[in-house]
Design a protein that fits this description.
The protein is of the alpha+beta class and 339 residues long. Helices cover 45% and strands 23% of the residues. It is built from eight helices and twelve strands.
């Protein structure tokens, strides 16, 4: 609080005393020697000091000496000299037989036209409960992070077990159709495992898409491409980041489109390449998965969309993006564009 210099010294002091007396917050009015001139009733009550034991005493002698803090005294003396000021200074108040309290103090030199009589206004806030609440919140967040890591670890193990069972089953069945379905399920589980692994490794709210897609495509290639020299997956992605929930949808889209290309674009052990592309500009982004395989059918209108196409269309709709399929000549290109 600053008292305007137009006030007379006596009027300025009376105003300061009135402010202290009427304050609902703990306030002290000190002189240049850190002698207590006045204190608010809330200060008496908060720190359990009798009013008769307050005035005309040094701040450092209040109570049982708990206010005798060298650093605080130095800061207040510097404030009185005009060389510094106390702004949100934190200290622990230790009283015999009581729990320590965490205090935040602010002090200001009052200017009311009497340079011979220095006055300081010291305000005190007890933030003990707030600090305890912050600590409890931090502890809960740490516990949540530990539990999340444990869940992620268990999920990763479960996905690996499921993928192994599917692959073993695929090797044992006699039906070629059943084997194909099991192998497709195995590939999807492995891709989801790659998604989970990449997201678990990200400690931030945003996910870098390039390493995310690279890991995803590497996992898909390892599980579905038998001859890496004949078939390859190329990732062409800029330095874009996106929210974790959006990255999950993008990862599922890439998974379905790459699996679909590996299953249908290169029959008869054809060689070729699949390209995963993603680029963004502000709120606009575009993603595509293209191949140089046999291309789309001559009568696409007469063919029924498969499960993978339905998943991609649903994910694109969730992302408020447009889904299109085009002839890449050679091959096929599927685009997801958000404008």
């Amino acid at each position: 609080m600053t008292i305007l210099p137009t006030l007379q010294p006596e009027g300025g002091l009376n105003l300061a005393l009135a402010v202290v007396a009427s304050s609902s917050a703990p306030l002290l009015l000190l002189d240049g020697d850190l002698m207590v001139i006045a204190a608010s009733a809330s200060f008496y009550h908060e720190f359990q000091i009798e009013p008769v034991k307050m005035t005309n005493r040094q701040l450092s002698t209040l109570g049982n000496g708990e206010w005798n803090v060298r650093q605080l005294s130095s800061l207040l003396q510097a404030t009185a000299a005009g060389a510094a000021h106390v702004d949100a200074y934190e200290m622990d108040l230790n009283r015999d037989g009581q729990t320590p309290r965490r205090l935040v103090l602010n002090a200001q030199k009052l200017d009311y036209g009497d340079p011979e009589h220095i006055r300081l206004l010291l305000s005190v806030s007890d933030v003990t409960d707030a600090r305890l609440a912050e600590k409890l919140k931090d502890d809960l967040l740490r516990e949540k992070a530990i539990l999340l890591q444990e869940v992620q670890h268990r999920v990763a193990n479960s996905l690996q077990i499921i993928a192994s069972i599917l692959m073993q089953s695929a090797r044992q069945v006699q039906s070629e159709e059943t084997r194909t379905h099991l192998q497709s399920a195995h590939s999807r589980v492995m891709s989801i495992a790659a998604v989970q692994q990449q997201l678990a490794a990200s400690r931030l709210g945003d996910v870098l898409l390039r390493p995310y897609f690279e890991q995803l495509c590497k996992s898909l290639g390892a599980s579905m491409i038998q001859d890496a020299k004949a078939l390859s997956i190329e990732v062409n992605v800029d330095d874009s980041k996106t929210k974790a929930n959006v990255s999950v949808s993008l990862g599922l889209i890439v998974t379905e489109l790459v699996i679909n290309a590996l299953k249908h674009a290169f029959p008869g052990h054809r060689s070729g390449k699949i390209i995963v592309d993603y680029h963004s500009n502000d709120t606009q982004w575009s993603m595509s998965v293209s191949d140089d395989g046999v291309g789309i059918r001559a009568d696409p209108a007469g063919s029924k969309p498969g499960l993978g196409t339905g998943i991609v269309e649903a994910m694109a709709k969730q992302l408020d993006a447009e889904f299109t399929i085009s002839d890449a000549k050679p091959g096929t290109k599927v685009s997801i564009v958000h404008m």
